[in-house]
Task: structure prediction
Amino acid sequence: MTDLKSHEVLDSILRDINNRSVQEFHQGEKATCFEPKLSDNDEVLEAGEQFSLDNYQVVRREFFAHLSEPAVTFYNCKFYVNAACLHRFPGVDYVQALVNQEKKVLVLLPCEEGARDAVPWSIKGRGKPKPKQVTCKLFTYKLFTLMEWAPQHRYKIMGKIIHARDTYLIAFDLTAPEVYEKTVTDDSKTRVSRVPVFPAEWKDQFGLPYYEHKQTMQVNIFDGYAVYAIKDNGLAEQQIPDTPLATATQGGITDE
Result:
């Protein structure tokens, strides 16, 4: 795939998402009802029209373990994907990194080794390919400046697969990272927390209200291809310790 066609695909996706209203989407949306497989002894309560999901919140996927989902990490002037990305694209050794500064979206587009601006994202060993940590000081500087991220911390962003016009790529919402703080211990040693820091506004909620969540179209079939629409902008302050963030702990979520 040429560089021009690659950019045209991404631009078309983002343009369609931005221009098409939620109402237009739902007019063409087909209702999906998943039915359980029941035995003769199973009891089903008929709630009818009186049951509503108005007061329910959809729990954010960031609150669950997601080792099998695509993710990209930025830390110490390096970026690298996880094994799930390589598993989704077996045989792919190079990608192009595309950034939409307005939408705050990072896209990794699989490409050939000889493609312009191709970046290796894996290394070949004796067994399966492994993620490659790519040093990219200028790229991380520009990205951290754009997102107002603290350069000493580690940022992990979950991704979603997009399919459009026979092209597959991975899109990452840069506004919803998992932040792992780097701190200095009493003996002057640095330590990166294994517990992610989330935006403070997440502390008192599990996620978006059900119907609001449905309207965000985070993952839906849209004009014949699957898309990941960017909504629910998160909090990104350059000096994380000076901002009210919530840290996930075994006992719950506490202010930092």
